[in-house]
Amino acid sequence: MDLLGTADAVAEGELLCSAKGCRAEAAWGLLWNNPKIHTPERRKVWLACDEHREHLEQFLSRRDFWKQTVPVDALDRFSPEARP
Ligand SMILES: [Zn+2]
User: Fold this and answer.
1) Which superkingdom, per the lineage (predicted)?
2) Are 34 and 60 in contact (CB under 8 A)?
């Protein structure tokens, strides 16, 4: 089962925590879905550092949006520009 197949890709070099005001390097990808605006298979991705992972998971869980948390290395990457 490939749960990451429908997750949004994250850009190379932009793996910073999604928490407000936090510029820490992200260690986790939080996959979420808002059934009111997203198709059921769609996965939006928030990035989180170790410190904010739990906070962001709770934020999404309270709204029933949270689906899964994966290591940031498991996320698909895309390159905005080709780099050597
Ligand atoms: Zn953070």
Assistant:
1) Bacteria
2) no
